[in-house]
């Protein structure tokens, strides 16, 4: 494929999926500025591998995997801690309360529950948080999540169970809407 065609195809993909990637990144990290940084890093990595990504059966899945891998790598490297401490002052670590200018994160909850859920997600360890976001926001199966995160299905199940248990403990049960049937 000629480079102009490749660039046009990549630009069209990014234009169509950038808001979605930003929402997923926000759910992973809990900070809109950092979500923008994660998306930018992921898009850069995606561009360098576009020749491979564009041939993938599921380009959205490839982009999502790139985003999650970027997030988890930064968590392991301590980049996020250094950036948060220096952006907000030593010891602060507070999440940026900036609203999503592109609209709500898309959780379809009332505002109080949405804010409580975002705060509770922020308290989960990075891998639990990534597992919960992928399983319940991105609606991936256990197998898909395991493949994306490069771990076993048992690990996904245990991370999901621990993450959900922590969320249940942190959230007021009266705020959680009752749904019919098991998820």
From TrEMBL:
<dbReference type="Pfam" id="PF04542">
    <property type="entry name" value="Sigma70_r2"/>
</dbReference>
<keyword id="KW-0238">DNA-binding</keyword>
<dbReference type="InterPro" id="IPR013325">
    <property type="entry name" value="RNA_pol_sigma_r2"/>
</dbReference>
<comment type="similarity">
    <text>Belongs to the sigma-70 factor family. ECF subfamily.</text>
</comment>
<dbReference type="InterPro" id="IPR013324">
    <property type="entry name" value="RNA_pol_sigma_r3/r4-like"/>
</dbReference>
<dbReference type="InterPro" id="IPR007627">
    <property type="entry name" value="RNA_pol_sigma70_r2"/>
</dbReference>
<dbReference type="InterPro" id="IPR039425">
    <property type="entry name" value="RNA_pol_sigma-70-like"/>
</dbReference>
<keyword id="KW-0731">Sigma factor</keyword>
<feature type="domain" description="RNA polymerase sigma factor 70 region 4 type 2">
    <location>
        <begin position="116"/>
        <end position="167"/>
    </location>
</feature>
<dbReference type="InterPro" id="IPR014325">
    <property type="entry name" value="RNA_pol_sigma-E_actinobac"/>
</dbReference>
<protein>
    <submittedName>
        <fullName>SigE family RNA polymerase sigma factor</fullName>
    </submittedName>
</protein>
<dbReference type="InterPro" id="IPR013249">
    <property type="entry name" value="RNA_pol_sigma70_r4_t2"/>
</dbReference>
<feature type="domain" description="RNA polymerase sigma-70 region 2">
    <location>
        <begin position="14"/>
        <end position="76"/>
    </location>
</feature>
<keyword id="KW-0805">Transcription regulation</keyword>
<dbReference type="InterPro" id="IPR014284">
    <property type="entry name" value="RNA_pol_sigma-70_dom"/>
</dbReference>
<dbReference type="Pfam" id="PF08281">
    <property type="entry name" value="Sigma70_r4_2"/>
</dbReference>
<dbReference type="InterPro" id="IPR036388">
    <property type="entry name" value="WH-like_DNA-bd_sf"/>
</dbReference>
<keyword id="KW-0804">Transcription</keyword>
